[in-house]
Amino acid sequence: MLTDKILFFSLNILLLSGTGYYIINQGASGLSLPVNTLLWGVMALLVLFISFRVAPGKYFVTTVALLLFISGIAVLAIPLIYAEPAGLPRAGWRVAALFAGAVFYFAWLQVRLSHALRQGLWLVLLLAVAAQAALALVQLFAPDWAWVPLRGHRVYGVFQQPNVLASFMATGLALALMLFLLPGFTLRQARYEHCRQAFLGALLLVLPALLVWIQSRVGWLGGALVALLFLWRFGALFPARCKQAALLLVAGGLIGVVGMLWAGPEGGLGYLSHDGSNQARWTMLRDTLRMIAEKPLLGWGYGGFEYQFLHFRINQTPPTVVTEIANHPHNEMLLWWVEGGLVALLGMGLIIVGGLRLVCRAWHQDRQAFIDGRRCAGEPTALCFVLLPMALHTQLEYPFYLSALHFMVFLMVLATLERQVSGVMGRRPLPVSMGVMLRTLLPVASAGVVVLMVFALLGGLTLTRAERAGLMDITAVRAMPGLSAWVHQDRKGFDEQVHALLLFNQTQDQALLSGYAQWANGYLKKHIDRNVYASLYLILKHQGKNTQAERLRREALAFFPDDPRFM
To answer: Where does the Protein glycosylation ligase domain lie (predicted)?
Structure first.
């Protein structure tokens, strides 16, 4: 059993590393974002810490969902065997993240949390939400004071994407409702309880207003659903608390709407039309389903969605007008299905079945808990509602690629839910021999991930500095350690080739152009980039390869019909 100090040590790491911390970067997703590398390192440290505290004979698995999750991830790895070489690195990282998440999930299942410690966990997560809400409000009303620079007019906290901030706020709203409505979380000392209620009441007032101002449809949908579900499920059981919560939620929502109307179309809070985005999402869904229908069995190949999807679009009759360069279908299930076919769909199905089993167990267990008058009654169902905003977001975008904090919080809540609903009879101890093996493997693997994330962070910072300096000097990029270069090999290769073009302008060395052309031909088999197309087109024209140049120009024009370089 883990001690209280171990738990709060873990919570402090989460709080300090996951909220309000910003490292300058160039955007993108995954390990290109420094905060993600930090949080993957934090997850590895937590696994390391937990593995040192669990005796070899004390490891257990649950029979409810864990085995389904692990089986699903193993099935999702199968299409890597026949993936195209061009897409294999991207897909490999994605599958590796799933396995790493499963390890973190398994480790968190070993943490024995009392009711009081669970409340501590939820309050720490709410502090993380409150920190992001405070930053978002500063970005809205005092942008010069914001410690995270604002690009454009929409706020995004530390996440650099409004929808990611919105789903995090909706998750915080669900947590606040859980702690506010369920009497089992009431503190015994009155003065502490008054402070807790004031904190939760402030969140129930501020978060709806902020969700309105962020202007994210997934945030609106997630926030509205969790509010309605909580009031529906617990309205008859705790009518007084639900009426208070409903008043705060409505007041917060009205503040948000009035602020938006008062700001007008020119203000920072003014309403933004989503008509163009709605149309783009619909056409993306339609074309993705058409791709699935064309290759339902084996799919189009892991890691190749960006290349295959855009080429599928321009090769249709009539071709779809390309309005954005998409590397994800904005639906996680569709991504695995279109790339991996029925095998990947089976893997996703196993994961979904595992999740649904947890939901059913939570629902039935809570009904009995209310009958028995248990203190924790209602918490399992409430945790299902807490998971909803992020789960919903994965079917409309790709939040876990953009924010490792979302992935970490989702796994912690899900593992805590499974531990609650599995019960003593639902847990099976692992053999001591397997526990001894895990006692060795988990620390070694965790330490390896920590080292990898350190090199990934240092490499990413090196590349960012060079890119912000215009790539005129890439000495530091070339001197990157091998592990850093391996993690960022795509980005490093891109920067080196941009530098080669800049160097050609000074030296007129034709070998630099030939090297760029060879690299660009390989790069364009994985990515669709207008500047790479334009540069390669000019190089082919310069080298007298007019037929190839014209073919490339026509393809680029189909992708970028508004770019005068291809007209």
So the answer is: 155-180
